[in-house]
Write a structure and sequence with these properties.
3 helices, single chain, 93 residues, alpha+beta
């Protein structure tokens, strides 16, 4: 069993409220949390309207499978989220 922790830090330029932040970041939990091998949560900057941090825990039978899932998550976020990715950290356990 292989486990990765993927943490993404976002900047939300021009975001003026927590409500707008939820709309711009909306659906991350629903999009990725339904996958049986992925757990996701907003892990930082919860009270800031101009930033956000999300952590994904990915589990798989091989490191290659887990790395592939991490890459897919990153690519999908780049295409669908109305925010700038400032930092990406991957940690394998």
């Amino acid at each position: 069993m292989h486990i990765a922790i993927l943490t993404l830090t976002f900047a939300l330029p021009g975001c003026s409220s927590l409500k707008e932040k939820r709309q711009r970041m909306g659906g991350l939990h629903a999009r990725f949390g339904n996958t049986p091998s992925v757990a996701v949560c907003e892990s930082g900057a919860r009270d800031r309207h101009d930033a956000s941090e999300w952590t994904f825990v990915i589990v798989g039978l091989s490191k290659r499978e887990v790395e592939s899932q991490c890459s897919q998550i990153e690519e999908k976020i780049e295409r669908t989220v109305d925010a700038r990715v400032m930092n990406v950290e991957r940690e394998f356990i």
